[in-house]
Amino acid sequence: MTAQSGDTETARKRYNRAARFYDVEQAVGERLFFRSLRQQLWAKAPATGSILEVGVGTGVNIGYHPPGARVIAIDISERMLARAQHRAARWHAGVDLALMDAQHLDFPDATFDAVASTCVFCSVPDPVAGLREAWRVLKPGGKLLLLEHMRSGNAVLGKVMDAVNPLMVRMSGANINRRTLENLRRAGVQDFDASSHALGIVKLIEARKPAAEA
Description:
Mean pLDDT: 92
Number of helices: 6
Number of domains: 1
CATH class: Alpha Beta
Helix content: 40-55%
Structural class: alpha/beta
């Protein structure tokens, strides 16, 4: 087993363990903050066509999926997917759920009209590989939509986040000091819009794949 595959397996096990209480643990932040940003993100998604959601988790985004689009939602955790399936059934949502690694998407190039993800690339072991895969499966002219928290641009706060990050990873699996905008550029996504929230720590990101890019 390689170091990367070992990290991926660790992440899968961590989120399988967390699935049962995940929504409870996230409830306060969801009500106060993230719910509004999720609505803003999904309002940017196309009303029709095909959409891939990377990292569906327990399915908190399912209620925001455009009803006229075909949505495939993936996650690395079987137990997270099971909870998402219950949520989809309760809401009578027509989402297709699949067990899959964001770093190795099992789709051909240029499959989707949009790829969306919320608070996922903080925990993908190789975020650049995951972002590169998201960009690969996006059709020319399609949208990449991300809601992510990341390292603060403030020098002092950024260093504090670096120092605390190992503890946060052990506790929750999420890195709090990822440089996601830089990772996007490393993945080949050069042009994007990013609105800042929560002192610049949270960003809502939109990128459109050039029509001429395969």
